[in-house]
Amino acid sequence: MQHARLIATLRRIGILAIAVSGVAYLAYVFFHEPGDDQGGDRLVISVYGVSQDSFRKNLYAPFEAECGCTLVVETGNSAERLSKLAARKNNPEVDLAVFSDFDALAALRRGLLDPIDVSRLSNYNKLYEFARDPIGGHMAVGYTVYATGIVYRTDKVAISSWRDLWSPSLKDRLVLPTLTSSGGPLLLQMLERAAGGSDPTFAGALAQVAANKRSVVTFFERSANLVQLFQQGEAWAAVTGRYNLPLLLRLNMPIAWASPSEGDAGGRNVLVLIKGSRRRALALRFLDKWLSTEVQTAMALDLVDSPANREATLPPNVASLLTYGPEMIERMNFIAPAVVLDHRAAWTKAWNETIAR
Amino acid sequence: MNARTRGLLLLTPATLFVFVAFLVPLAILLAGSFQRDDGAIGLQRYVEFFADPLHQEVVLRTLRIGALVTLAAIALGYVAALAIVDLSPTSRARLVGLVTLPIMISPVARTYAWIVLLGRTGLVNNLALQFGLTDAPLRFLYTEPAVFVGLLQLLLPLMILSLVSALENVPRDAVPAARMLGANWWVVFTRVLLPLTRDGLATGGVLVFTGAITAYITPAMLGGAKILMLETLLYQRVNVTDDIATATVITALLVSMSILAKLVLSRLAKGRSK
Amino acid sequence: MNGRALQWTALGAVLLFLLGPFVIILAAGVSDGETLTFPPEGVSLRWAASVVAIAELRHAFAISFALAVLSTLGALLLGIPAAYALERLDPPGANIVRAVVTSPLVVPGIVVGLALLRYFVIPLGIGVRPALLASHIALLIPYAVRVVAASLRNLRVDIEDAAIMLGATPLQAFFQIVAPNIRNGVIASFILSFITSFNQVPVSLFLSGPGISTLPIEMLARIDFTYDPSIAALSAMLALLSIAIVFLAERLLGLSRYV
């Protein structure tokens, strides 16, 4: 009798011990910061979610090996990143972030950025002009450039101008970036140009989109779900950054990049340092690594980002898929970040009143 | 220590936690909707919110989809629940289990299934083409019907479960008795079953309606930026355009809609069944 | 019995509507093809394997799992005493307290996430991880209180009184008499809370941060740029996991009575 009771008690204690250690382990999993056990420093970066596998292979892993530190990566789109950084302004988690050039300027105007000491970047002098001081005051450096243009199904339509987006054969098959995404202002700029205007209020462009909004399948916020839309047959043409082209070509559909007579819009992505971050030296080192010829070439060979570093040389079959070389970069229509920021509120108002409904 | 003091002591941690980590932050957010730009108290934010035609449309769409989903759930819910309570207790339990299943499955996975089904090259379009119901694939994704279908699948189980438990309490001989007295099917339903299951209907109605107007994933994935509902509009206003003023108003609207739906429907249930 | 046949057909149609999509996603997830299609091209588990091979997804799964267990335990720890007090001890203001502790149920997740981020996490300087945990606990307390209160209601008060009369302290009476009897209710509430937390999206959307992302959020982000069956395979695996949990729970204690 006594014996049985003892066993029951022991079993109860055993179960309890297992449960407690299980919970303790889960608490460890949950509260454990990556890299704590390696003893090195941690660098927190906030970037776009696309092609993280390539970044890990070409940039993160080699950097971690070099510095003996751990990279913590947060992914999301430019606007979400901006609002999260603003929310945590007084207690920043992130050390280094990437933005579109105008969102970087927005971050600067909200006091979220620190200047970059470019004299400490060994790769700075290798950069193209557009990447050296994109928002002024050395508050950012460009790491990639991309044409924003039209991808389309060559078996369904022909595109030779931005005006062809409104062709009847694209009714219900057209996908455009929404105004609040990085591609939105670039789309409006090209539509304005196609209509022969150059008015920064983009009234003509907004009117065109409004008049044709019924043909648009959806206005996307993250460019990446384009792949889904083309694959499901929802989209026959879309306006997007060229970095999406390689991904789309892997669908084995007759998809091509259009060469409209007006040219393409130019977009830049930049690296910035977050104000108040404590790991400044490490962040600068990482930034320099990102701009190095070796990393820039590797990312280009994986068809992820077109180089901002002039010394990155690419074979022709790769170069043709990217935004590469001085001539191509010259031909693109860049839009000044300040113009976007100064007019965006008015564009948004017009967009909400006439297009989003 | 008497029971009441002990009671207070046991209640304090949970109440305090919900206060600090939920109610107070929510109250501050709600209070923000009554703040004018100059800091004084006023309805300026509401006036500005409703002056925007996009916002009017989103509010109406949210109410419309909420109402339609609720009505459809009531219709399908009675059909399913009446069939389920007709079963033997064992198979009844089994079917209730089947109906419960969808509630337990990740909404992301669930909605993804609809993307696969409703795309232009998806199963629904392929079947429609094969049976000659349509000449060309129809566009479902990013339309109101897609959001409606997704929400209905999400919330119908809650209605069925409420109605099953309500119908289980209906006296077994109520329906046969009414039929013997010559009542037709419709009369039996409206005069016998409906009054006896009003409570369950109200409970299910509240769950489905508030579920529909407060769901996020379904409208985000199946409606996108073109078919905004209040939740997706709120997310966009906060995280894309950093517009907290609008967000506070949407918060107030969503919370008051949920509470109003609960009050109205429970009043309806009580008032009539007495 | 024409009416009967009609009734069964209708029930079948409703079930098809509710469950059909999972069959599709399951089939698409085991496809051997390169792209997401239905009907699937051949059968293979390689996409399921490819999902498991992604370190970020494994990490997110571990985080989601740990978060669900920890927040459920936290909610039960706070919720069971509260439920007991509400049902048995008749504290002053019981109705108000009941409304307070169940209030997170009626507020949309997006609103909860926003309110907590701006007026709880940031002003108090709470780190990303504790903030995520606290928000999930707040969300789950209503489930703990309601389900446990319901099973307390079904338990007769007098056996507890008898134990106390026989000399047990209230604490002994609770652990020896009440606890074993409400065990099923507690387990039911554990499962409900676990699944609610594990599948939670809108709140986590605001409160996740660098290095800590939950599985549904990671999945939502990946859907955007995935065209192969891997996300379908992941969805199918998650669905099967839920089905297994529900099936076990149903077997053991008739979970649906508590939903």
Automatic annotation (TrEMBL), chain A:
GO terms for cellular component: outer membrane-bounded periplasmic space. Keywords: Membrane, Signal, Transmembrane, Transmembrane helix. The chain crosses the membrane at residues 12-31. The keyword Nucleotidyltransferase does not apply. One of its GO terms (biological process) is thiamine transport. The keyword Cytoplasm does not apply. It comes from the Bacteria. GO terms for molecular function: thiamine binding; thiamine pyrophosphate binding. SUPFAM superfamilies: Periplasmic binding protein-like II. This is ABC transporter substrate-binding protein. It comes from Roseiterribacter gracilis. The lineage of its organism: Bacteria, Pseudomonadati, Pseudomonadota, Alphaproteobacteria, Rhodospirillales.
TrEMBL record, chain B:
Gene3D superfamilies: MetI-like. Residues 59-265 form the ABC transmembrane type-1 domain. Belongs to the binding-protein-dependent transport system permease family. CysTW subfamily. It comes from Roseiterribacter gracilis. The chain crosses the membrane at residues 63-83, 95-117, 146-167, 201-224, 244-265. It holds the Pfam family BPD_transp_1. Keywords: Cell membrane, Membrane, Transmembrane, Transmembrane helix, Transport. GO terms for cellular component: plasma membrane. This is Spermidine/putrescine ABC transporter permease. Signal peptide: none annotated. PANTHER family: ABC TRANSPORTER PERMEASE PROTEIN (PTHR42929:SF5), INNER MEMBRANE ABC TRANSPORTER PERMEASE PROTEIN YDCU-RELATED-RELATED (PTHR42929). It is a multi-pass membrane protein.
From TrEMBL, chain C:
It is found in: Cell inner membrane; Cell membrane. It holds the Pfam family BPD_transp_1. InterPro entries: MetI-like, MetI-like_sf. It is a multi-pass membrane protein. The keyword Amino-acid biosynthesis does not apply. It comes from the Bacteria. One of its GO terms (cellular component) is plasma membrane. The chain crosses the membrane at residues 57-84, 96-121, 133-150, 185-209, 230-249. The keyword Cell membrane applies. GO terms for biological process: transmembrane transport. Its main location: membrane. Residues 61-249 form the ABC transmembrane type-1 domain. One of its GO terms (molecular function) is ATP binding. SUPFAM superfamilies: MetI-like (SSF161098). Keywords: ATP-binding, Cell inner membrane, Cell membrane, Membrane, Nucleotide-binding, Transmembrane, Transmembrane helix, Transport. Gene3D superfamilies: MetI-like. Belongs to the binding-protein-dependent transport system permease family. This is Spermidine/putrescine ABC transporter ATP-binding protein. It comes from Roseiterribacter gracilis.
